[in-house]
Amino acid sequence: MGTTQPIRTNDEIQDLKEYFLNKGETRNYVLVTMGLNTALRISDLLELTWKDVWNFSRGCFRQHIMLTEHKTKKNQAVYLNSSCIDALKQLKGELSEEITPELYIFQSRVGKNQHIGRNRAYVLIKKAWNELGYEGNVSCHSLRKTFGYHAWKDGVSPAVIMNIYNHSSMEITKRYLAIEQDDRDEVYRKMEL
Predict the structure, then answer these.
(1) Residue 43 C-beta-side C-alpha neighbours within 13 Å
(2) Per-residue pLDDT tens digits of the chain, which is 193 residues long
(3) Which of 4, 48, 77, 111 is found 20 to 30 A from 119 (Cα to Cα)?
(4) Residues contacting residue 129 through CB under 8 Å, at least 6 positions apart
């Protein structure tokens, strides 16, 4: 099966997001967008409710998602960038039912106010990736890894990425960054001393 990989190119990221938009699957588009831009684990992402992103008393989107991570039990403040907010606005505008604070963002079609499951999210992402014709082992966890990989490529310190991920060691973060030979070659090309 192999280790889940980050999505390495911006074109692949855009293709994955547009795959869902072109199919009119805004919920799934928001799932991918939020996964890529928040670095949250899928279990934390799926349990987000509208009160986590929308300030009902002020009538606006929040600046941060405040949560306690399931896996680490650590408190986390996750900034909502413009990509997340734009995607959430689109979903909010398309929902026919009234948005309530306890309503899950990633609603399942099964049951009343239930979020989609991890397996369903995996199937959605894997199917899209395969239909786009891309190779590599991509899953829900790839969204989280993609955040770190692109942050690292943009020059963010691995120590900061480790802190964002709430990892206990740099070794774990290094595995997430999935540094391969092409990444190493790029450093050598740039180092004209």
Answers:
(1) 6
(2) 468 999 999 999 999 999 999 999 999 999 999 999 999 999 999 999 999 999 999 999 999 999 999 998 989 999 999 999 999 999 999 987 789 999 999 999 887 899 999 999 999 999 999 999 999 999 999 999 999 999 999 999 999 999 999 998 988 888 888 877 777 788 788 887 8
(3) 77
(4) 16, 136, 138
Which are the contacts of 41, defined by CB distance < 8 A and separation ≥ 6? 69, 70, 71, 141, 144
Task: Determine the Cα–Cα distance for residues 191 and 184; give it in Å rounded to an integer.
Answer: 11
3-state helix, strand, coil in the chain (%, to 5): 55, 10, 40
Q: What is d(CA 176, CA 79) in angstroms, rounded to the nearest whole number? A: 21
Query: Distance between CA 35 and CA 42 in Å, rounded?
Result: 7
192 contact partners, CB below 8 Å, separation of at least 6: none
Strand pairing class (60-61; 64-68): unpaired
- The SS3 of residue 136 is coil
